[in-house]
Amino acid sequence: MAAHTLLDTFLSKLRMRDDVSDAEARALFDCASDDAEYPAGADLVREGDRPHVSMLLLDGFTTRYRDSPDGSRQITAIHVPGDFVDLHSLLIKEMDHSVGALSRCRVLHFPHPRLVALTEAHPHLARLLWLMTLIDSSIHREWLVAASRPAPEQVAHLVCELFTRLNVTGIVREHKFHLPVTQTELGEALGLSAVHVNRTLQQLRAEGLFTWQAQEIHILDWDGLRRRASFDERYLHLVKEPR
Asked: What is the distance between the terminal CA atoms of the chain, rounded to a whole angstrom?
Protein backbone atom coordinates (compact mmCIF):
# COMPACT_ATOMS: atom_id res chain seq x y z
CA MET A 1 0.00 0.00 0.00
CA ALA A 2 1.30 3.48 -0.86
CA ALA A 3 2.79 5.55 1.93
CA HIS A 4 0.37 8.41 1.32
CA THR A 5 -2.57 6.08 2.06
CA LEU A 6 -0.90 4.71 5.17
CA LEU A 7 -0.28 8.22 6.48
CA ASP A 8 -3.88 9.42 6.19
CA THR A 9 -4.69 8.91 9.88
CA PHE A 10 -1.54 10.68 11.04
CA LEU A 11 -2.13 13.58 8.67
CA SER A 12 -5.71 13.93 9.89
CA LYS A 13 -4.38 14.25 13.45
CA LEU A 14 -1.90 16.93 12.40
CA ARG A 15 -4.51 18.84 10.41
CA MET A 16 -6.81 18.97 13.42
CA ARG A 17 -4.13 21.11 15.06
CA ASP A 18 -2.65 23.12 12.17
CA ASP A 19 -2.60 23.34 8.39
CA VAL A 20 -0.33 20.92 6.54
CA SER A 21 0.54 21.89 2.97
CA ASP A 22 0.60 19.45 0.07
CA ALA A 23 4.38 19.90 -0.12
CA GLU A 24 4.72 19.01 3.57
CA ALA A 25 2.49 15.98 3.13
CA ARG A 26 4.64 14.79 0.21
CA ALA A 27 7.77 15.29 2.30
CA LEU A 28 6.29 13.07 5.01
CA PHE A 29 5.40 10.44 2.40
CA ASP A 30 8.97 10.49 1.08
CA CYS A 31 10.36 10.14 4.62
CA ALA A 32 8.64 6.78 5.21
CA SER A 33 10.24 3.49 4.21
CA ASP A 34 8.84 -0.01 4.70
CA ASP A 35 6.05 -1.27 6.95
CA ALA A 36 6.11 -4.23 9.35
CA GLU A 37 3.69 -6.35 11.39
CA TYR A 38 3.94 -7.58 14.98
CA PRO A 39 1.77 -10.17 16.75
CA ALA A 40 0.01 -9.43 20.03
CA GLY A 41 2.45 -9.70 22.93
CA ALA A 42 5.54 -8.94 20.85
CA ASP A 43 7.91 -6.09 21.63
CA LEU A 44 8.36 -3.48 18.93
CA VAL A 45 11.37 -2.06 20.73
CA ARG A 46 12.97 -2.91 24.08
CA GLU A 47 14.48 -0.90 26.88
CA GLY A 48 18.18 -0.42 26.15
CA ASP A 49 17.75 -0.60 22.37
CA ARG A 50 19.16 2.14 20.15
CA PRO A 51 16.66 2.25 17.28
CA HIS A 52 17.60 3.55 13.83
CA VAL A 53 13.95 4.09 12.85
CA SER A 54 10.87 5.57 14.49
CA MET A 55 7.57 3.75 14.06
CA LEU A 56 4.15 5.14 13.21
CA LEU A 57 1.31 2.88 14.34
CA LEU A 58 -1.03 2.12 11.43
CA ASP A 59 -3.26 -0.59 12.91
CA GLY A 60 -3.64 -2.03 16.38
CA PHE A 61 -2.74 -0.86 19.88
CA THR A 62 0.61 -0.67 21.62
CA THR A 63 1.79 0.19 25.10
CA ARG A 64 4.84 1.78 26.62
CA TYR A 65 5.93 -0.04 29.74
CA ARG A 66 8.68 -0.66 32.28
CA ASP A 67 9.40 -3.93 34.07
CA SER A 68 9.93 -3.70 37.83
CA PRO A 69 12.59 -5.73 39.70
CA ASP A 70 9.80 -7.80 41.30
CA GLY A 71 8.62 -8.90 37.85
CA SER A 72 5.56 -6.67 37.70
CA ARG A 73 4.90 -4.34 34.79
CA GLN A 74 3.87 -0.69 34.79
CA ILE A 75 2.13 0.54 31.65
CA THR A 76 2.84 4.25 31.11
CA ALA A 77 1.01 4.88 27.82
CA ILE A 78 -1.42 3.32 25.36
CA HIS A 79 -0.97 4.17 21.70
CA VAL A 80 -3.68 4.08 19.05
CA PRO A 81 -3.54 4.15 15.22
CA GLY A 82 -1.95 7.36 13.98
CA ASP A 83 0.47 7.63 16.93
CA PHE A 84 4.25 7.60 16.69
CA VAL A 85 5.25 5.06 19.33
CA ASP A 86 8.92 6.08 19.60
CA LEU A 87 9.48 9.36 17.77
CA HIS A 88 11.52 10.56 20.76
CA SER A 89 14.15 7.87 20.00
CA LEU A 90 15.36 10.19 17.22
CA LEU A 91 16.89 12.38 19.91
CA ILE A 92 17.24 10.42 23.15
CA LYS A 93 18.90 7.52 21.24
CA GLU A 94 18.78 4.80 23.91
CA MET A 95 15.31 3.56 24.87
CA ASP A 96 14.54 3.89 28.60
CA HIS A 97 11.36 1.81 28.28
CA SER A 98 9.85 -0.86 26.03
CA VAL A 99 7.01 -0.69 23.52
CA GLY A 100 4.81 -3.79 23.32
CA ALA A 101 1.92 -4.83 21.08
CA LEU A 102 -1.43 -5.12 22.87
CA SER A 103 -2.92 -6.55 19.67
CA ARG A 104 -1.68 -7.45 16.21
CA CYS A 105 0.00 -4.28 15.01
CA ARG A 106 1.21 -2.80 11.77
CA VAL A 107 3.73 0.02 11.75
CA LEU A 108 5.38 2.26 9.19
CA HIS A 109 9.11 2.88 9.57
CA PHE A 110 10.71 6.32 9.42
CA PRO A 111 14.53 6.01 9.26
CA HIS A 112 16.21 8.52 11.55
CA PRO A 113 18.49 10.02 8.86
CA ARG A 114 15.39 10.82 6.80
CA LEU A 115 13.65 12.36 9.82
CA VAL A 116 16.69 14.55 10.49
CA ALA A 117 16.68 15.72 6.86
CA LEU A 118 12.92 16.32 7.05
CA THR A 119 13.17 18.52 10.13
CA GLU A 120 16.02 20.52 8.61
CA ALA A 121 14.21 21.11 5.31
CA HIS A 122 10.73 21.67 6.77
CA PRO A 123 10.86 23.57 10.08
CA HIS A 124 7.07 23.76 10.32
CA LEU A 125 6.83 19.98 10.10
CA ALA A 126 9.56 19.76 12.73
CA ARG A 127 7.39 21.88 15.04
CA LEU A 128 4.38 19.65 14.39
CA LEU A 129 6.38 16.50 15.17
CA TRP A 130 7.61 18.23 18.32
CA LEU A 131 3.99 19.04 19.15
CA MET A 132 3.04 15.37 18.96
CA THR A 133 5.77 14.40 21.43
CA LEU A 134 4.63 17.25 23.72
CA ILE A 135 1.08 15.90 23.59
CA ASP A 136 2.45 12.48 24.62
CA SER A 137 3.96 14.24 27.65
CA SER A 138 0.69 16.04 28.35
CA ILE A 139 -1.17 12.72 28.35
CA HIS A 140 1.42 11.24 30.70
CA ARG A 141 0.98 14.16 33.12
CA GLU A 142 -2.79 13.66 33.06
CA TRP A 143 -2.32 9.97 33.90
CA LEU A 144 -0.19 10.96 36.91
CA VAL A 145 -2.89 13.35 38.15
CA ALA A 146 -5.63 10.77 37.56
CA ALA A 147 -3.71 8.19 39.61
CA SER A 148 -4.58 10.10 42.79
CA ARG A 149 -8.32 9.76 42.17
CA PRO A 150 -10.67 6.94 43.20
CA ALA A 151 -10.64 3.88 40.94
CA PRO A 152 -14.04 4.57 39.27
CA GLU A 153 -12.82 8.04 38.26
CA GLN A 154 -9.53 6.62 36.94
CA VAL A 155 -11.23 4.00 34.77
CA ALA A 156 -13.88 6.46 33.54
CA HIS A 157 -11.17 8.99 32.68
CA LEU A 158 -9.14 6.49 30.66
CA VAL A 159 -12.26 5.41 28.74
CA CYS A 160 -13.07 9.07 28.01
CA GLU A 161 -9.52 9.70 26.81
CA LEU A 162 -9.37 6.68 24.51
CA PHE A 163 -12.84 7.43 23.12
CA THR A 164 -11.74 10.99 22.31
CA ARG A 165 -8.40 9.99 20.79
CA LEU A 166 -9.95 7.23 18.68
CA ASN A 167 -12.79 9.50 17.57
CA VAL A 168 -10.16 11.77 16.02
CA THR A 169 -9.00 8.87 13.84
CA GLY A 170 -12.54 8.03 12.70
CA ILE A 171 -12.44 4.58 14.32
CA VAL A 172 -15.38 5.18 16.69
CA ARG A 173 -18.75 4.11 15.31
CA GLU A 174 -22.05 4.82 17.08
CA HIS A 175 -20.22 5.46 20.38
CA LYS A 176 -18.51 2.06 20.12
CA PHE A 177 -14.82 1.25 19.77
CA HIS A 178 -12.56 -1.79 19.96
CA LEU A 179 -10.11 -1.90 22.90
CA PRO A 180 -7.92 -5.04 23.07
CA VAL A 181 -6.90 -4.57 26.71
CA THR A 182 -7.36 -7.17 29.43
CA GLN A 183 -8.38 -6.29 32.98
CA THR A 184 -4.85 -7.21 34.08
CA GLU A 185 -3.36 -4.77 31.54
CA LEU A 186 -5.83 -2.10 32.58
CA GLY A 187 -4.66 -2.61 36.16
CA GLU A 188 -1.03 -2.28 35.05
CA ALA A 189 -1.90 1.08 33.48
CA LEU A 190 -3.83 2.39 36.48
CA GLY A 191 -1.87 0.84 39.35
CA LEU A 192 -4.84 -1.32 40.39
CA SER A 193 -5.23 -5.05 40.94
CA ALA A 194 -7.22 -7.03 38.38
CA VAL A 195 -9.81 -7.76 41.09
CA HIS A 196 -10.18 -4.04 41.82
CA VAL A 197 -10.51 -3.30 38.10
CA ASN A 198 -13.24 -5.94 37.78
CA ARG A 199 -15.23 -4.47 40.67
CA THR A 200 -14.82 -0.97 39.28
CA LEU A 201 -16.03 -1.97 35.81
CA GLN A 202 -19.08 -3.62 37.34
CA GLN A 203 -19.81 -0.43 39.29
CA LEU A 204 -19.55 1.81 36.21
CA ARG A 205 -21.68 -0.62 34.22
CA ALA A 206 -24.33 -0.54 36.94
CA GLU A 207 -24.31 3.26 36.74
CA GLY A 208 -25.29 2.96 33.07
CA LEU A 209 -22.22 4.77 31.74
CA PHE A 210 -20.74 2.18 29.37
CA THR A 211 -20.50 -1.52 28.65
CA TRP A 212 -17.32 -3.50 27.91
CA GLN A 213 -17.86 -6.85 26.24
CA ALA A 214 -15.66 -8.91 23.93
CA GLN A 215 -13.08 -6.07 23.79
CA GLU A 216 -15.70 -3.57 22.62
CA ILE A 217 -16.63 -0.51 24.65
CA HIS A 218 -20.04 1.03 24.09
CA ILE A 219 -20.53 4.48 25.59
CA LEU A 220 -24.13 4.67 26.87
CA ASP A 221 -24.01 8.07 28.58
CA TRP A 222 -21.19 10.28 27.30
CA ASP A 223 -22.12 13.36 29.33
CA GLY A 224 -22.51 11.27 32.47
CA LEU A 225 -19.19 9.53 31.85
CA ARG A 226 -17.42 12.87 31.40
CA ARG A 227 -18.86 14.11 34.68
CA ARG A 228 -17.92 10.88 36.47
CA ALA A 229 -14.34 11.19 35.22
CA SER A 230 -14.03 14.98 35.64
CA PHE A 231 -12.76 14.76 32.06
CA ASP A 232 -11.46 17.90 30.37
CA GLU A 233 -9.98 17.22 26.94
CA ARG A 234 -7.81 20.35 26.87
CA TYR A 235 -4.71 18.27 27.60
CA LEU A 236 -5.18 16.55 24.21
CA HIS A 237 -4.74 19.92 22.45
CA LEU A 238 -7.32 19.41 19.72
CA VAL A 239 -7.46 23.10 18.82
CA LYS A 240 -6.38 24.14 15.33
CA GLU A 241 -4.02 27.12 15.40
CA PRO A 242 -0.67 28.16 13.88
CA ARG A 243 2.27 26.29 15.36
From this structure: 31
